[in-house]
Amino acid sequence: MIKVHRVDGKKTISLSKINPTDVQKMSKEEAVMHTTALHTEIAELQALLYASGEKSLLIVLQGMDTSGKDGVIRGLSNALNNTGCVVSSFKVPTEEERGHDFLWRIHPCAPQLGQISIFNRSHYEDVVVVRVHKIATEKVWRGRYDRICDFERLLTSNNTIILKFFLHITKDQQKRRLMAREADPTKSWKLSVGDWQERDLWNDYQVAYEDAINKTSTPEAPWTIVPANDKWFRDLVIAQTVAEALRPFHKKWLSDLTLRGEAAKKAIAEYRAGKTSKETAS
Ligand code: AMP
Ligand code: MG
Question: Residue 278 domain-assigned?
Answer without folding.
Answer: no
